[in-house]
Amino acid sequence: MFIGLTGGIASGKSTVSAMLRSYSIPVIDADQAAREVVEPGTETLAQIVDHFGPDVLNKDGTLARKKLGAIIFQDEAERKVLNGIIHPAVRKRMAEWKDDYLAQGETTIVYDIPLLFESELFYLVDKVLLVYVDQQTQLSRLMARDQAGESDARKRIASQMPLEEKRKQADAVVDNSGSKEETEAQLKEILRRWGVSVS
Q: What is the pLDDT of residues 49-58, one digit of tens each?
């Protein structure tokens, strides 16, 4: 079974991802793939520089994420261009990892994809598991985590599909507004319901 794990910025998806790993369930991390495909020397990074210019590089040749982020958070057209460059490379890397896990005999694989809904990647998975928090919790956690001002935090949350919308379409929801123990209890119950054994 392929499970798509998703959430919103500062919803606690990484916490749930770590729990799944602790049960020895393989997790394919889209963010990790996204970091790897833009390392210096990659074709993807060259395409980004071609479009956005050399200003989006640090002195050491790595991608200056904050500079690029500042461009794409303000401009949806540029965000689409960037996604069009990065997403195919990320999907290719994730497919390689999936094939490796299947070759090792794994029967349950989790895809950790922050923008599963926004990128409409449902075809990759059998079930969608959403990590949810209410809007106020999401805002205060993001401000605390990134030392962000409220207006910056609100902008970043607004650049994603609202969690309330995702909630309506997910196969199961882990409400991460409470304690870590409550979150884990919900996760185990969902996996049990889906026939996934948790050691």
A: 999 999 999 9
